[in-house]
Design goal:
Bound molecules: zinc ion
Order of helices and strands: HHEHHHHEEEEEEEEEE
Helix content: 10-25%
Largest sheet: 11 strands, mixed
Length: 203
Amino acid sequence: MTETGGDPLADLRDEALALIRRTPVLAAFAPPPSDLQPVDIPPRSLPFMEHMRREPGAPAPDTKAFADAIMRAAPSAHWRQTYSEAEVGATFLSRYAWMELWGPSGHFHCEDARAYIAYWGAGLYYDWHRHEAEELYFVVSGSAEFPAEGADAARIHAGGAKQHGGDQPHAMTTLDEPILTLVLWRGPGLAGVPAMIGKMAGR
Ligand code: ZN
């Protein structure tokens, strides 16, 4: 372990940039942004953090340093949730959250790329949803099943990736373990948010 600069969010940014540079599927989807400006966003803690600390999921050899950087930065991050209890239920809300590492409203400002860190505990079903931006899920630790309209549902493990096209309906199920992800967005609709479509999606 090398000495760090004492800013866990900056360390997390650097680990994310390094991960993208050495991981072809990530670099091909969106090259690492070079114009990241730090933004003063206060930390925001949510109940899921205790859950993530207890059950971070197993990383791959190449994602372990990034997973560790996420755990170190978690107390400094502004964690958010897109959905209400009416939409997803109390159990879901107690075991999931995301933070925007870089992007239009991220800890590091950038207009033309977006990177999130997102966590879901084991045994959760993230119902069908869609958004205009194209998306790449990269699994940092744990695993989940990723159904998407027009594609076979595949279980993706640490080190694996799943891409969604703009407005392609998709869902996610965690099974016997949680999932910790790096999520990249690109293209039109970058500043948008996902919309639940639930049972309207074809499956
Ligand atoms: Zn999505």
